[in-house]
Amino acid sequence: MLTANLIRTKRDGGVLSEAQWRFLIEGFCSGEVADYQMSAMAMAVFFKGLTRTETADLTRCMVDSGERLPRVTDRPRVDKHSTGGLGDKVSLILAPLLACCGVDVPMISGRGLGRTGGTLDKLEAIPGYQTKITTDQSSRVLREVGCFIVGATETIAPADRRLYGLRDVTGTVESIGLITASILSKKLAASLDALVMDVKVGSAGFMPNLESASELAESLKEVGAEAGLPTIPVLTDMDQPLGRAIGNAIEVNESLDVLAGGGPKEVRDLTLRLSAEVLVETRMATDIANAEATLADALDSGGAKERFEKMVHEQGGTLSGHLPLGEQKDYVAYQDGWVQSIDCPAIGDAIITMGGGRRTVADVVDPCVGIDLHVRIGDRVERGQPLWTVYESQTKCPPIDPVVLSETEVSPRPLILE
Ligand code: URA
């Protein structure tokens, strides 16, 4: 088999067999298929798509590129994954929160992808936090804490780890087949009993409208079911960032607030709902309302925050309150009005420009840069009122005007769409 022929087949709209995907993924992991060839293949897939069978085959080959994590307790194993969006820090809160409710959360997460931030980059803003630990270490943390958050490694979903890095910088993220295989390969490697998928819809995520997001949700549900993993998709709004904080250290700080029972309501509400779905799926709660009440208690009692601190400690991190941020600059409203929209691409690009995201695979992320949005779509604002704050470090924030105001009233947007 020749890699160039496989790329040509896909480029011309053909369908590859499982054996051909296996050849490609095995070669990619061993170094026989070069990064530039895999990037070309990702671009061909971006344009021509994958059939459902190809998506399932690719997912299986990516899982088989590494090991599966062993089950180390009798507790149900659950997880949540998001298709990615600005300000999405739910994973940091959800893992320790669910661990407080008697389930294990062995979370294998990703780095920033395109304009969206990554859970691993956020956690690495905490001094000492190790996202790369051995399987034995992660099993010990799971037994003792009930959750861990790590990255794909050379042994766990290595194909995703490498392909993810290439897609981030080659404009090949927004593909239903590649997103499905990327997410499910990590989740299947974690030997889960149930997965809730937060499928983001809107300009701050990868699926711009309900139609494409529903297609991705179907793909995740079907490929997950075929691989024996019950996958519950929830479609949620991403036409504005989730919560106020966008950036790495700043999102850890907001997560700490939510873990302590405070923080923005939309971050708390979404975390409760997604967590409730897996508690019901694994029969740890009878219904969503019941599950949400139990979860809310774990936030308000401080139990979830304590669990987060324990996880951070066990993974080598040192946390003593909020993390330091860059130099602060505030921007105010130049007129009265209502918030009509938020320019999410401008915010995402500004964070990357300031060093909070990557332009190339080798870039090192600066955790201190970030943006704090003080308003949400539909909010009434008055001239002179603070709209957003930027935290800059080495590189200044490019000129942006991320909050668009209207002179007429605007309705708030619903958070959970389907
Ligand atoms: N999250 C992932 O893990 N992979 C993707 O491709 C997109 C979002």
TrEMBL record:
Where does the Pyrimidine nucleoside phosphorylase C-terminal domain lie?
338-411
UniProt GO MF annotations = thymidine phosphorylase activity
Species the sequence originates in: Rhodopirellula halodulae
Write down the chemical reaction(s) this protein catalyses.
thymidine + phosphate = 2-deoxy-alpha-D-ribose 1-phosphate + thymine
| Similarity-based family | Belongs to the thymidine/pyrimidine-nucleoside phosphorylase family.
Q: Self-association or partners: how does it assemble?
A: Homodimer.
Membrane-spanning ranges: none
Q: Where is the signal peptide?
A: none
Enzyme Commission number(s) of this protein? 2.4.2.4
The EC class name is transferase
The protein's name: thymidine phosphorylase
For this UniProt record, the keywords arranged alphabetically read as follows: Glycosyltransferase, Transferase
